[in-house]
Design a protein that fits this description.
It contains 2 helices and 4 strands, in the order ββαβαβ. It is extended. A hairpin with a 6-residue loop joins strand 1 and strand 2. The longest helix is centred in the middle third of the chain and has 10 residues. Helices cover 22% and strands 33% of the residues. It is α+β, with helices and mostly antiparallel strands and 73 residues long. The strands form 2 sheets. The chain has a two-stranded antiparallel sheet. Strands 3-4 form a two-stranded antiparallel ribbon.
Length: 73
Amino acid sequence: MQARFRDLESGVKIAPRSAANEIADYMHGALAAGLRIDHFSEHRFDEEAATNCPRGEKYIGWPILMLMRLRAG
């Protein structure tokens, strides 16, 4: 999935460059930097979120947020 936006004034579609990364890429990067992963959680887009953002309804059930708490090794 890639972020997509529309300029409200011009109507031009904007799609910033992105890189496809897997969760393991972030975890290995943190560990390679000498950090310790104290917490990891993944959160999915749900019905409550869709109530606040109806355009996102099609993403219900999709993983949308990953959190890591990192500490110096």
